Amino acid sequence: MHRRRWARRILTLLLCPLLPVAGAAELRVQGLFEGRALFAMDGERFMLRDGQTGPQGVHLLRATSEAALVEYEGQRRELTLERGRFGGVYQRTDAELRIPPDARGGYIVRGLISGQTVTFVVDTGATLVTLSDAEARRLNLRPAGGVEVAVETASGIVTGRRILLDRVQVGGLALDRVEAVVLPGESPATALLGMSFLGRVDMQKEGSLLVLRAR
Question: Is 0.90 topped by the overall pTM?
């Protein structure tokens, strides 16, 4: 697996036991317009314009009168209207998330921390989910109350704060009480999905795809 140059090994910490995953959700496109689209999910309807992110991290990349290009739960799909009824269904499943590699061969997935959208780099070299202090502030987390831990980074040993996240979700895989570490400053620029999450799901390569499955 490709590894980014930034922080790698975090000093060994205890992991939490596996907890149940979340239920499935279905996203439908109900209306298509130039630059915007109308969606329905879990009984809720919402309109998004190009570039906007809506409920549960639904991100509209581009809409035309014929199709909507959507990024949702780490994957991209082009949704269209089916003739005579609501269509363009994007279905996530509890059991599995298939992540394609990016241009560098790494694996990037959009997810949620306590209901707020986060972009993760999948990093098996990180013991814990790892966030910068800047990202933690954006998510309204309070690392000051966490336990101080020594963290080895590419720049040397720094002092981070170990905290407990209420819920981390990627695709249909959602875990409660996930340990994380918050590092001072703005690095890592992208949150690391470390082994405090990955160690509680099954993970394998299928060709170029990285597949995560519930245990």
Answer: no
